[in-house]
Amino acid sequence: MKSLILFLCLAQLWGCHSAPQGLGLAYRELNCDDPETEQAAQVAMDYINAHRLRGYKHVLNQIDKVKVWSRRPMGEVFELELDTLETTCHVLDPTPVANCTVRHFMDHAVEGDCDFRVLKQDGQFVVLFAKCDSSPDSAEDVIKICPDCPLLGPVNDTKVVHAVEAALAAFNAQSNGSYYQLLEVSRAQFMPLPPSTKVEFAVVATDCVAKDVTDPTKCNVPAEKQYGFCKARITEKAGGEDVSVTCTVFQTQPVVPQPRSDDINVAVDPPAPAPTLADPPVPALVGGPMVVAAPQPPPVHRVHYDLRHAFSGVVSMESTSGEAFHPVKPPVLTGPGPVVVGPGPVVVGPGPVLTGPGPVVVGPGSAAPVVSPCPGRVRHFKI
């Protein structure tokens, strides 16, 4: 009995030192398709699309893992691993993501992988931590299913650059309104038959009238920006090329007053660069102390905007000291008495059943809890 008490004390002391500040010693596992899990995951997806800087909106495809940690003095933290899929809606497109089409795998789909920690307190969810990256389906997999399907190409390829310039020039030539400048090249694919280049790109209106422009360098982007999104195809033919382009122009974006430094408490490290034509304005981050993780510049030869480079995530600061949340299970302590485990969901040992404020010890014959089924259902398709 003395050895049992000793092991219990050691386990509790170890747990107190190893548990993240402000969080309980144990987590509970939910079904990945549990309504509460899906609610937290949807908040995470809304966060992704609200903080995309470039590229396309994403939708939830599958919840891989979920753990729910108690948080002192109140609330719970949902630790989530999510799989996402790219849609055909550009990040500047105001269309609700629920109405956006998921890009088909034969159109060389892109999958995202995200880690989130979402705080639930008083029935409200707030993102504490977010980290994402994404990658296109492998060319081999696309060709295996659809040998004639076009593959993604580098957006700085000379053919792509030429296709975008030709398409934008054709659009401005047909315009009776503003002159548009290139904002970003979002996507490019090469078609073998007939030889052609498909491009998708974002544009922004300037203060010039398209039919009057003689020197585009003198055109400026007004404070109230109007964005557009274009799809074009340049087809090679004997003696020239055919240019086909369609553009959708979105409503003008009003100027959002920037909050004063004494209005909100947001720590920024490093300082976010001022928005440029290549970087649309980012919504203000509000909701508690956090550090904005500035996205890294995308690779020059990229074929898509990786979420790692095009998503402005956050790193949690769970205490005033800035200690991040890193949950870790303690080691198992063994000896002549029952086996004792700290902050884990299950503790099993050969001794009697003991209950109390400390770790739970389960004796022989007790049923082990059923592990919640994860990963959850696939909503669209797996890459």
From TrEMBL:
Residue ranges occupied by any Cystatin fetuin-A-type domain in the UniProt entry: 27-133, 144-255
Return the InterPro entries for the record.
Answer: Cystatin_dom, Cystatin_Fetuin_A, Cystatin_sf, Kininogen_Fetuin_HRG, Prot_inh_fetuin_CS
Primary location group? secreted
Q: Where in the cell is it found?
A: Secreted
GO MF terms held by the record: cysteine-type endopeptidase inhibitor activity
State the PROSITE patterns in the record. CYSTATIN_FETUIN_A (PS51529), FETUIN_1 (PS01254), FETUIN_2 (PS01255)
GO CC aspect terms = blood microparticle; extracellular matrix
Pfam families per the UniProt record, alphabetical: Cystatin
Keyword annotations of the record: Disulfide bond, Glycoprotein, Phosphoprotein, Repeat, Secreted, Signal
* Position of the signal peptide: 1-18
PANTHER family, per database record: ALPHA-2-HS-GLYCOPROTEIN, FETUIN
Protein name according to UniProt: Alpha-2-HS-glycoprotein
Organism field: Orycteropus afer afer
**What is this organism's lineage?**
Eukaryota, Metazoa, Chordata, Craniata, Vertebrata
GN (gene name): AHSG
